[in-house]
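Human:
If only I could read backbone structure tokens as easily as an amino acid sequence. I am handing you a single protein, as its sequence and its fold in token form. I hope you can help me see how the letters and the tokens relate. Thank you; the sequence and its tokens follow:
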Amino acid sequence: MPGHIAILGGGIGGLSAAIALQKTGYDVTIYEKHHDLIEVGAGIILGANALTSLDFLDVGDDIRKIGYAENICTIRSDRGKKLTELTYDGSQTTNYTFLLRSELTHILASSLKPNTIVFNKKLKDFKQHEDSITLYFEDGTISTASHLIASDGIFSTVRQKLLPDKQLRFAGYTCWRGIAENCPNYIEKRFTETWGPKGRIGIVPLSNNRMYWYALKNCLADDLEFKQWKSSDLFYNFINYHDPIPTILERTSDEFINHRDIYDLEPIYQFAFNRILLLGDAAHATTPNMGQGAGQAIEDALFLALCLKDASDITQAFKNYEEQRLERTRKVVKDSWMFGKVAQIDTPLLCSIRNKVIEIAPNKVHHKKIKELFDITKTLKV
């Protein structure tokens, strides 16, 4: 099998792609700019589509052993009233699986061949030649590969050079993520998302009596006040929301909270550039609604492996992959953007109107949306 494939970025997409390619028989090296793969204080939601893809990578069962599974996401008002449920009862895989991002990363990395990942390699520049790719790193080293998969995240160095006019899009809100340890037994282990005038907050059960939560508030980009918020600020912001939200926030240490503004990448129309392929957030960064940031990156790995499985020409396989992924990823980005706009309504009157509309909407409307998202079997064309 010709060529050596370099993968830029050791995130979920890069690790998943490397596993898929090694299963298919390709020689792969991951170049990661950080000194390790650990991300503290962040949980992750894997939809059924992601877990189906991870089963293909032979790591699905390992994830199930340590993850917490749930089939329903309940949307509630700030007073605790149930507005609707996001579920798909036709899935053969659990709709939602929850674990720490670091736990998922460890499972993926452990599935790779030894010495697949090279750390402390931050890309400075690259050049594409007729028969190879040359990578120039900030430490002065140079590497050569037959092809490059750019899985270097939303701020992708590779994409910025290939598509310099394509800018990120600020979603209009910021996000805190945290882990509450040793939660009281009376707290129900339910996946809920609460929408109200003080912002939106999701509660996600984890194993070992932990709860992962995420909180979102509308703001301008780079809001200096929100950058300084601690768990106590979030507690008082959401103090009038229904139980157990205040309790969970009160039990979260500041060291286990991550904060960042939310951006996405307005859909682009090209992933393959001859010997270079954009993958994951580098190709289709989406807002963190519907749990599809990691989900689509993991799907990418599955589709890439299928396109390469019987291909004699990697460059053509990249093109085939692009043709199969463009439409679905564009739809996910668009739907996630719209979901966020609806969920982030924070004017009290508009909140009441939105909540009433959601309540009276037929369940089949939500069911159809979740089915389209989680059922990927019909999209497997190779």
